[in-house]
UniProtKB/TrEMBL annotation:
Occurrences of domain ABC transmembrane type-1 (ranges): 62-246
Presence of the UniProt keyword Cell membrane in the record: yes
N-terminal signal peptide: none
Membrane-crossing segments per the record: 12-34, 69-88, 100-122, 128-147, 177-203, 223-245
GO process terms (BP): transmembrane transport
Name the UniProt record assigns to this protein: ABC transporter permease
Domain of life of the organism encoding this protein: Bacteria
PANTHER family attached to this UniProt entry: ABC TRANSPORTER PERMEASE PROTEIN HI_0355-RELATED (PTHR30151:SF20), ALKANE SULFONATE ABC TRANSPORTER-RELATED, MEMBRANE SUBUNIT (PTHR30151)
Length: 254
């Protein structure tokens, strides 16, 4: 890595790193100056110690939550893109699907989660579906917008060359929608995390959300904060993967 690349990397990431370090310093100062009890707000050092403690099998719980998040993200992404394409392909499909999708999106997801438990029982799959249900709607809307908000000259050019509708759709409309879809996937990456953890709160015997719930009775706040940090790390990793994918598939949008 040459000097120019290092300089660009520092210019890009240094503000975020500085903000994070400042937040941790203020957190530590608040705990020390105001002498806050650990069960109310543990110090950063106590949280880091809990993150690597043998008291909790972190690897197993983190693996379960990671699978749920990834599954929720993939289901939301695939279903959202397919539904968005259906809406953009046909006006009749748009009129039929849009009101129904809005109705589904307005349903309170926390209230739906117990129903998933009744239908499917405990396990990873219900939590994936809850996460997907929370995260798919932005993908649907952005996909439909990206496929329809396109320069008419490009569509006319395809018609001049007698390209069939499906080819115009595949060669012109879908590449135009890349930035829209990838922007929505960044939102879905965080929504999938929320959905998976909500599912673990309602019905789970494993996972980081389950760790948070079980520590409430014992008021083991450092472990609860440690679980939150692990959840955030998983969310950041997924978001970073989507961001890298955006630079590959749609560098002009970046």
């Amino acid at each position: 890595m040459n000097r120019n690349k290092i300089t660009r990397w520092l210019a890009h990431y240094l503000p975020a790193i500085g903000l994070f370090i400042g937040f941790v310093i203020l957190w530590q100062l608040a705990v020390s100056v105001f002498d806050i009890r650990e069960y109310l707000l543990p110090s950063p050092g106590a949280v880091v110690q809990a993150m690597f403690s043998d008291e909790i099998p972190w690897l197993g719980h983190t693996w379960v939550t990671a699978l749920e998040i990834l599954g929720a993200f993939l289901i939301a992404a695939i279903a959202g893109v397919m539904l968005g394409m259906a809406i953009a392909w046909s006006d009749a499909m748009s009129r039929a699907l849009t009101p129904f999708l809005v109705f589904v999106n307005t349903l309170p997801k926390v209230a739906i989660a117990p129903l998933f438990l009744m239908w499917m029982g405990y396990g990873i799959i219900p939590n994936m579906l809850i996460g997907a249900l929370i995260g798919f709607f932005p993908v649907v809307i952005n996909t439909a917008v990206g496929l329809t908000q396109i320069d008419k000259d490009l569509v006319d050019l395809g018609r001049v060359f007698s390209a069939p509708k499906w080819k115009v759709f595949w060669k012109i409309r879908i590449p135009n929608a890349y930035p829209y879809i990838l922007s929505a996937l960044k939102v879905t990456a965080t929504s999938a995390v929320v959905g998976a953890v909500v599912g673990e709160f309602v019905a789970s015997q494993k996972g980081l959300g389950y760790v948070i719930i079980t520590t409430q009775s014992s008021m083991n706040t450092p472990v609860a904060f440690a679980a939150l940090v692990w959840i955030s790390i998983l969310g950041l990793l997924l978001y970073g993967i989507v961001a890298m994918l955006s630079r590959v598939l749609a560098p002009w949008a970046e």
